[in-house]
Amino acid sequence: MQSKHIIKPLAAILVLAASYPLCAAAQVQAGLPATATADPSGDGNSRAAIAGQSLIGQPAPNASLTTLDGKHIELASFYGKKPVYLKFWATWCVPCREQMPGFEKIYEKYKDRIEVIAVNTGFSETVADVAAYRTKHGLHMPIVIDDGSLGRKLNLRVTPQHVLIGTDGRIEYVGHLADRQLDAALEKVVTEKAAHGAVALAPQLAVPATLKVGDEVKGLTLETIDGKPLSFKPGESRALYFFSPWCETYLADSRPAVAQACKRVRIEAEKLAGERGVQWLAISAPLWTSAKELAGYAQAHKTTIPMVLDRNGEVFGAFGVRQFPTVVLVDANNRVRRVLGPNDRGLAEAVRQLKAH
User: Fold this and answer.
1) For the chain, is the Cβ count within 10 Å smaller at the N or the C terminus?
2) Residue 279: which domain range?
3) Which pLDDT score is estimated for 195?
4) Which residue windows are transmembrane per the record (predicted)?
């Protein structure tokens, strides 16, 4: 996204009165993670700062990553040995592209002292997209494509998002801009040593298996942006429309086919939602999106479909959604019946079959 004028089309439609949540400090005092309820709608730097509130000083997570070249990387293997610089980015992201020449220079400067890894977000990307970008721009640092799990652990909210992990395995910096602050943070992690050789590592939690067609949906509770809780109960068929409110506008130039698919599915979903027999939910990723912006989007498009902001990316993760738009159909027995991606047609027929099942 353009960090200086975040998603102009969205900014133009934010006409609802804002009801601001607790400030980050108040959330921490209340025992809540700062990013759990924060609802940023500012520029990329402020969003990254809020995302980092609950991360700074905390043990960094482990992650098993695979580069475009098939090399396996165990993130925790660097803790205690050298700092790590993770840069989340996307090929369709304008400031990411602007920062890439400088990022390559950073890699060349620090590659022997910092483990530099380019983490593609994996949203509306393919391996071919990322590989072609690497070749075109002559990038040499390790590049991995996130399946969403690392982004969830590190509160991914913007692109680019910089995460610096010190030699002691603790997160030292989260940012968005390629500026003097980033430069200073890089120099700081290079010169610091792990205190007394101690290495921190975040608890490794079991990752739930991604739901596939035929699997039963259990224990998943959602909440709409107006605070209405929703749970999966037998007897109701559901259509889950996964999207981002900037898909139609921001991707119009860099991913025109995706932008067109987002518009097509939005219009078709709204029409189908007016029919009985299936409960529709529109679920947005938290990347470059706040509840306030989502409410503005809903008002601008006069949508009647309840909106859900997947604040921690858990719902996207549960269904393994990485492409915009995606529709997941769940039958009355709470089993995943069908998954339709951006290139799939026949949504109306799939919904008809869901009703008949």
Assistant:
1) C
2) 221-356
3) 58
4) none
CA 55 to chain centre: 16
In the sheet with 161-165, reading across from the earlier edge strand, the strands are: 143-145, 115-120, 84-89, 161-165, 171-175
Q: What does the buried/exposed string (b/e) look like for 65-99 if buried means 16 or more CB atoms within 10 Å of the residue's CB?
A: beebeeeebebbebbeebbbbbbbbbbbbebbbeb
**How many residues does the structure list for the chain?**
357
Please give the tally of structural domains in the chain: 2
CATH at residue 103:
3.40.30.10
Q: Dmax of the chain from CA atoms?
A: 65
In contact, 244 and 90? CB cutoff 8 Å:
no
Q: Is 214 domain-assigned?
A: no
pLDDT averages per 10-residue partition of the chain, 357 residues: 41 30 30 40 91 95 95 95 97 97 97 97 96 96 97 96 95 97 96 68 74 93 92 89 97 95 97 95 97 95 96 95 97 96 96 91
Cα R_g (the chain), whole angstroms: 21
Residue 46 in 3-state DSSP? helix
DSSP 258: H
d(CA 270, CA 276): 12
Nearest-5° Cα angle at 220, 38 to 201: 60
Whether residue 171 is found in the same domain as residue 227: no
Tokens standing for residue 247: 């898909």
Quickly count: other Cβ atoms within 10 Å of residue 111's Cβ: 13
* pLDDT at res. 333: 94
